[in-house]
UniProtKB/TrEMBL annotation:
It comes from Candidatus Desantisbacteria bacterium CG1_02_38_46. One of its GO terms (cellular component) is cytoplasm. The N-terminal domain interacts with the head of the 30S subunit; the C-terminal domain interacts with the body and contacts protein S4. The interaction surface between S4 and S5 is involved in control of translational fidelity. Residues 11-74 form the S5 DRBM domain. The keyword Calcium does not apply. Transmembrane segments: none annotated. GO terms for biological process: ribosome biogenesis; translation. This is Small ribosomal subunit protein uS5.
Length: 168
């Protein structure tokens, strides 16, 4: 139990959106809420979760729990991503481009929340198609999952690392 509380302090949480939804029943409408939450930890650790409940605070709590379970690790190149990627989900597409130091986070609402929680400080992002917050979050995560480090790419291609000295 103590380990869980330590982890809780080191994570950043951002609520991207809260929706009130209704279900029509015999006696009228029953309202409930859903909350889309982004959670980020150390550099390159980020997750998202959708919580649903009859109360806003319960929905946020459930979303945070799901986000902790869905955390992924991102390959970073300093303060930015190593190369340009495009993520797709539904009718949404997100183009993520690395940026030079000092550029900052140039991105819209949902995508900006992910970048800030993942501690990616220099990036340019463009949303194309549907701007539904849930679709944008899933498209952004699709793009971030495509990122690989230089070592991973070399291993997949089956190339050896060659020494950079002039003598060999």
């Amino acid at each position: 139990m103590a380990e869980y509380k330590k982890e809780e302090k080191s994570l950043k949480e951002k609520v991207v959106t809260i929706n009130r939804v209704s279900k029509v029943v015999k006696g009228g409408k029953r309202f409930s809420f859903n909350a889309l939450v982004i959670v980020g930890g150390e550099k390159g650790q980020v997750g998202h979760g959708l919580g649903k409940a009859n109360d806003v605070s319960d929905a946020i709590r459930k979303g945070t729990g799901r986000a902790r379970k869905n955390m992924i690790s991102i390959s970073l190149n300093g303060r930015t991503i190593p190369y340009k990627v495009t993520g797709h989900f539904g009718a949404s597409s997100v183009v993520l481009k690395p940026a030079s130091p000092g550029t900052g986070v140039v991105a819209g609402g949902s995508v900006r929340a992910i970048m800030e929680c993942a501690e990616i400080n220099d990036i340019v992002a463009k949303s194309i198609g549907s701007t539904n917050p849930f679709n944008l979050v899933c498209a952004t995560f699709d793009g971030l999952k495509q990122l690989r480090t230089e070592e991973e790419i070399k291993r997949v291609r089956g190339k050896e690392e060659k020494s950079e000295s002039l003598g060999t």
